[in-house]
Design a protein that fits this description.
By secondary structure, this protein is α/β, with parallel strands linked by helices. The protein contains 11 helices and 13 strands. The protein has a domain of 213 residues: Rossmann fold. Strands 3-2-1-4-5-6-11 form a 7-stranded parallel beta sheet, sandwiched between helices. A two-stranded parallel sheet has the order 7-10. The chain binds uridine-5'-diphosphate-4-deoxy-4-fluoro-alpha-D-galactose.
């Protein structure tokens, strides 16, 4: 049985991926410092799968602790989620982002080199494309100058990994996520945003739950059919499954290059107003919202061309926007 280390394994995408890994028969070890996650998630994962993953509360910035961990565990592959992800916070505190997202990546890659661990999956983002010139976005679209320190950590992260792959035994896949939403069908795990949500779906569900008064729609003057911005919203369980497909590709050695990137989305773009309407319809409720100014740094439209992931990973998003929004609301109601 392969042992997979999942950093940030108690977070939103990490926890769903741990469930899929265990369902696929992998032995999972989680490292998570609970910065943006809760200890209860470990019990929830255990309830879903019937298997308790090993867990270590290690801050990956602590190089000595990281070193001690790798000295005492045999690891076959790593899925590296642990990172900070708030765009606005990264603008205010760039050094925190470079330490959390880049320094820790370097420490892990150093351990992988020392211990000859071959397989690495990295959480990247469609943010690397900025506003792409062509839609849908293929992996060949140029990487644009980053709009925020957060976005820059994803670009630099990919570069560090690619160069390490050329210089060592390392094989890696960067998955460029589009917009992950939704919750596990058991409603035992889901997104737990810290404070006021920055992302659309948790803001919508908290508004519907009465925690927020009103949703602000950031701009209705974009050059799109209804004027609101378009994104590719992917169910987190579909996204989790893409990690298993990527990991298996590396373990089987059927990767075509030592470093590969794949877009992980549904291929379908939805506007903010379409998301609101779909949420209202599927959950049979009314959402208060108002149109406000555009949010600084937002792009007009992004949705994935997933041809490469479909073909090479044998993976395809299966769940609809309706299913994702329904699960997000069920999850919110449970909170
Ligand atoms: N939006 C609103 N109101 C809100 C929140 C969001 O109208 O209260 C709109 C945004 O303007 C955008 C869309 O809903 O048009 C989606 O916004 P999110 O914040 O949910 O997602 P983003 O596409 O802006 O952000 C995602 C990831 C980031 C990443 C970014 C880069 O969450 O990690 O893509 O493209 F950096």
């Amino acid at each position: 049985m392969n042992t997979i280390l999942v950093t940030g394994g108690l977070g939103f995408i990490g926890s769903h991926t741990v469930v899929e890994l265990q369902n696929a028969g992998y032995h999972v070890i989680i490292i998570d410092n609970l910065y943006n996650s809760k200890m209860e998630v470990l019990d929830q994962i255990t309830e879903i799968t019937g298997i308790k993953p090993s867990y270590f509360n290690i801050d990956l910035r602590n190089k000595e602790e990281v070193h001690a961990f790798f000295n005492s565990h045999q690891i076959d592959g790593i899925i590296h989620f642990a990172a900070s992800k708030a765009v606005g916070e990264s603008v205010k505190n760039p050094l925190l982002y470079y330490e959390n997202n880049i320094a820790t990546l370097v420490y892990i890659l150093q351990e992988m080199k020392t211990h000859q661990i071959p397989n690495f999956i990295f959480s990247s983002s469609c943010t690397v494309y900025g506003q792409a010139d062509e839609l849908p976005i293929t992996e060949n679209a140029p990487v644009k100058p980053a709009e925020s320190p957060y976005g820059n950590t994803k670009q630099i992260g990919e570069e560090i990994i690619e160069q390490s792959c050329h210089a060592t035994h390392l094989k890696a896949i960067a998955l460029r996520y589009f917009n992950p939403i939704g919750a596990h069908e058991s409603v035992k795990i889901g997104e737990l945003p810290l404070g006021v949500p920055q992302n659309l779906i948790p803001y919508i569900t908290q508004t519907a739950a009465g925690i927020r008064k009103e949703l602000s729609v950031f701009g209705d003057d974009y050059p799109t059919p209804d004027g609101t911005a378009i994104r590719d919203y992917i169910h987190v369980v579909d996204l989790a499954k893409a990690h298993i497909a990527a990991l298996e590709r590396l373990i089987k050695g059927i990767n075509k290059k030592e470093f590969e990137v794949f877009n992980i989305g549904t291929g379908k773009g939805s506007s903010v107003l379409e998301v609101i309407k779909t949420f209202e319809k599927i959950n049979q409720l009314h959402l208060s919202y108002k149109i406000v100014e555009r949010r600084k740094g937002d792009i007009t439209a992004a949705y994935a061309d997933t041809t490469l992931a479909n073909k090479e990973l044998g993976w395809k998003a299966e769940k609809t926007l309706e299913e994702a929004l329904h699960s997000a609301w069920r999850w919110q109601q449970k909170q």
